[in-house]
Design brief:
With about 325 residues, the protein is an alpha/beta fold. The protein is about 40% helix and about 20% strand. The strands form 5 sheets. The chain has a 6-stranded parallel β-sheet, with helices on both faces. Strands 7-10-11 form a 3-stranded antiparallel β-sheet, covered by helices on one side. Strands 12-15-16 form a 3-stranded antiparallel β-sheet.
């Protein structure tokens, strides 16, 4: 006699399979950044399925297997790696980390031509298997790569954007935390513009709790939190990547955590404000360029671009940076 479905078990609990489709994140590039990002996604449990894709079959399979062996200790369900783009089929989020590697002494903009050529090769295949995914560009120079990838793909600026200055903003808040002795989570300050040498800390709108940073007074060491200190912190934020690359050849841990934060904001529809790199259209007079501004991020991707209070000096610096980024894109034929 076959077993019947118990009549006293609530329908919502039986059978165990859910109607909703598990979430899937596809990461393109199994280098230090891509592999660290995959690890961060698994540790945080941002998706039920994480896949890595790279042209180096041996490397990508090994990286995925190494992470998969620890699945027992994480919230994730599966990790896989392949050199076949088919592994990315029906992904909810596609993150592209593949690109030219930044060497000591190079600026991010020095990588533009090589990385854009890579995008021209890989985007058509990805769009064929994951046309409805939200695309996050991480490869540097991320602002130029995001702009050119939008042109190559034909996707909307909502569906495709760059990781921008989410990491730079985290670095800024970390340094302000060290100076003031307050928790990073209570510091609300942003870095906007290029993810690179022309980036602009938005000091005019920076607050700790609800107190403007301009009214903070002295730091833990007894020096005033003034324009000189702001300039020093801004310079240290901008130089951070160069210092890390000089010391160990690559930045990977913090960027992995930062991008996993963006992915979570998308998949969980958090409507979180993040400084991602998006195509601007009349933002403080800036148009036709991708650069970072505080943006609401949710399940549909990049939403409303916010207009924080900025000083005239900050506005001028952002405008100058936008012109430079636009010129780089034009030089590449975009």
């Amino acid at each position: 006699m076959s077993e019947a479905t118990p009549t006293n078990v609530p329908e919502s609990l039986y059978p165990a399979r859910r109607d909703s489709r598990p979430t899937k994140v596809a990461i393109i590039g199994a280098g230090a950044v891509g592999s660290t990002l995959a690890y961060a996604c698994v540790i945080r449990g941002v998706a039920r399925e994480v896949v890595l894709q790279d042209i180096n079959k041996q490397r990508v399979e090994a990286e995925a297997l190494d992470i998969a062996h620890g699945i027992q200790f994480t919230p994730a369900a599966s990790v896989a790696g392949s050199d076949d783009v088919e592994i990315c089929r029906d992904a909810d989020v596609v993150v592209i980390t593949a690109g030219a590697k930044q060497k000591p002494g190079q600026s991010r903009l020095d990588l533009a031509g090589t990385t854009v050529s890579i995008m021209e090769k890989i985007l058509p295949g990805l769009l064929a298997v994951a046309p409805h995914a939200v695309y996050i560009l991480v490869a540097n120079p991320v602002d130029v790569v995001t702009y050119t990838s939008l042109k190559i793909s034909g996707l909307s600026p909502t569906q495709m954007f760059g990781s921008g200055t989410v990491l730079d903003t985290s670095r800024l808040r970390y340094l302000v935390s060290l100076e003031t002795g307050t928790a990073v989570q209570n510091i609300h300050a942003y870095v906007a513009g290029e993810h690179g040498d022309s980036e602009v800390p938005l000091w005019a709108s920076a607050v700790i709790g609800n107190m403007p940073l301009s009214r903070w007074g002295t730091t833990k060491s007894g020096v005033p939190f003034d324009a000189d200190l702001c300039a020093r912190i801004g310079h240290e934020v901008m130089e951070s990547a160069y210092k890390i690359i000089e010391g160990k050849g690559v930045t990977n841990y913090a960027v992995g955590l930062a991008v996993s934060r963006i992915i979570a904001a998308v998949l969980n529809d958090e409507q979180r404000v993040l400084t991602i790199s998006t195509l601007l259209d009349g933002w403080e007079g800036i148009s036709d360029v991708c650069m970072s501004v505080p943006t609401i991020v949710g399940r549909e991707g990049a939403g409303r671009r916010l207009l924080p209070y900025i000083s005239m000096a900050e506005r001028d610096a952002l405008t100058t940076g936008a012109i430079h980024l636009r010129d780089i894109a034009r030089s590449l034929g975009y």
